[in-house]
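Task card 7
Instruction: Convert sequence to structure tokens.
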Amino acid sequence: MGLLTGALPDFPWDTLVPFAQQARAHERGIVDLSVGTPVDPTPAVVRDALVAAADSPGYPTTWGTADLREAVVRWFARRRGVPGLDPAGVLPTVGSKELVALLPALLGLGEGDTVLHPAVAYPTYDVGARLAGAVPEPCADPAERLARGRGDVRLVWLNSPANPHGAVLGVDELAAVVAAARDAARRDGRPVVVASDECYAELAWDEPWASDGVPSVLDPRVSGGDVTGLLAVYSLSKQSNLAGYRAAFVAGDPELVAGLLETRKHAGMIVPGPVQAAMTVALDDDAHVAAQRERYRARRAVLRAAFEEAGYAVDESAAGLYLWVRPAGGEQDCWQTVADLAGLGVLVAPGAFYGPAGRGHVRVALTATDEAVAEAAARLRGA
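Output:
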């Protein structure tokens, strides 16, 4: 056993293997809707930028090129309602998962510190706290928890749109957490960082988010025009089919980013130069994002209708890459629902992966080809 593995939970996806085997045994094979991995081509404009930068013999900078950081600033102003972001507060990361997993440690958290994260949540928030020696705490109302405080909370993770269930936090909800964190920091004399994982922000389906956009924690309506203590995390994996590039960034408080940068320079955690060039082009091109969003919108409509016709209910799911599904007729443990669907050759993720509060649901990914989505829908209707 490694030095750290004993402090970590088992890797949840390993427990899905028997159900994957069951689904593969279906006479028409498996339709895998369990993992949100993009399947559509990386846009040509992005691939061309990668190729153009392929002659890259020198070391890239950890901070990223000025062009990339300025592209992030333009993107926040154009797409997220955040004007005037300081390029000094932008840092590219090797995908977003490593930043989520390492942020508590990079911020210097440890024994006696608490990391709040959503009650139904991506497991890496929990893992990151444990890696730092801090305490992860699922929390449905972080503003109330901070107000009640014990002086132990040092980091609050928000996730909007949320994985797995697709709920969106509005401006007032975000602002309440930011205000509570700042009040707690003044009261306790210890900084409280609010980090918002916003990786699905370009994939909004329901109103008002589809028309008005998903608000960022850096939005002036949330931050009061002051990004002190705030970080937003974003990945190009979803919007641009760049999961294989490991292309993401964190942005916000320049002082916090400077601290992250210093540690990452020592550790050599650097986004490759050609990937930085590709990210710059991707962030400046809205057309490919709109096209990808329409692909997911069409797949979502097909899958949602099929699940509902088959006797399932879809809860939340206002944005993001997933449907949050349960049997409409009553409560059922998520593992039984996984087994029921595996019998149709359709593999989904159990809600238990995302905490005890998710045990009544399964997560259904929209990241399958049109043909696979149509096949899954046909099997659901046939059943």
